[in-house]
# Entry
Amino acid sequence: MFLSKLTLNRINRQAMRLLGDFYSLHKAVMSGFEAYREHTRVLFRIEPEERDGVVHILVQSKVKPSWALPGVVNSQVKEVHPAFHQGGKLWFRLRANPTVTRNGKRYGLVRDQSLEEWLRKKEKNLGVQFHSMSIVDEGYITGSRGKESHRLNLKTALYDGLLTVTDAQLLEKSLTQGIGPGKAFGCGLLSLARG
# Structure
């Protein structure tokens, strides 16, 4: 698995365009994988921390990308081999698209309690138990698709906290597949660090 860290200058016009439209950002990220006929799952997240007008985007993929994006001032790529053990404690970060489906249509969740419940319901399938988490309801992000500028809205929330591994294999699978909907648009990337 490969993890890329892209550094963008927010003042750059091309970078502003990418950061302001999640569909354009999706296309730009996927351009790093043009050498591969069939793309495997690519997950990415704009990091919330910003210093001196610099923004970081993390990209996780099964294949090594080739970066030449407009507005990117630096790109670092490293190969990682995550290994987990049952009972291990890890810090986590996840930007997600927490939704509920009613009558075949998805609706974004808005209450803090609903946002937490959405993630906690996934514990068993993720192979983890969440102990603590802070949640930032980020509202809606937007994008435009197609020549007719069809507007898209996506509800996002940022989760940070501590978890315990209950099933290492399930967690590995969750890490590579991503969590929840909106994966193509900057949601679903689970980042983990030793606790």
